[in-house]
């Protein structure tokens, strides 16, 4: 009987260790995917800032304001991209429970969906400014059109980025969904049970 108990303990300990390693690997891959995304966002932002500053000072009219807004808009993108990148690097080796992993994964997916909604607002704001341009002439018209076109472009680019990042993270999160689908809660008079089919 003692041998059976010892073997059972060894088997379940090995199984629990393998599950923990799989969870750690899952969390590490999630953070790496997030870091790659933030590097893409930061690169887009840096290119827009550099191009916007150079072209904003060498062009005139509508184009001048378009390039200037691209630079202004992407200062925020660069800051957010870098803060998220370094935050993710900090979380890289962090040990998480299964429940913590689920919460973190769901939070990241919801963040990208929420951001996609804001991206649509940027584009609508750009369309509004573009429409306002028709009520003005001269410098004001150029400003409204340039800023509007920039917001449409930047909002569209961010919508594409957030959509792709949501898809990548959502696909990655399916591993957790498969693990959760094996959990079964049972209850009856005087008893309750939790079964994990793996």
Oligomer: single chain
Estimate the mean pLDDT confidence: 85
| Content-based structural category | mainly alpha
Radius of gyration: 25 Å
Largest sheet properties: 2 strands, antiparallel
Main sheet strand line-up: 1-2
Molecular structure report:
85% of the residues lie in helices and 6% in strands. The protein has 198 residues and is mostly helical. The chain has one domain (22-180). Helix 1 runs antiparallel to helix 2. It starts with a helix and ends with a strand. Residues 3-18 have low confidence and may be disordered.
In short:
This protein has 198 residues and is mainly alpha-helical.
SSE layout and pairing:
Elements (H helix, E strand, L loop, with lengths): L1 H57 L2 H31 L6 H36 L4 H44 L1 E6 L2 E6 L2
Antiparallel strand pairs: 1-2
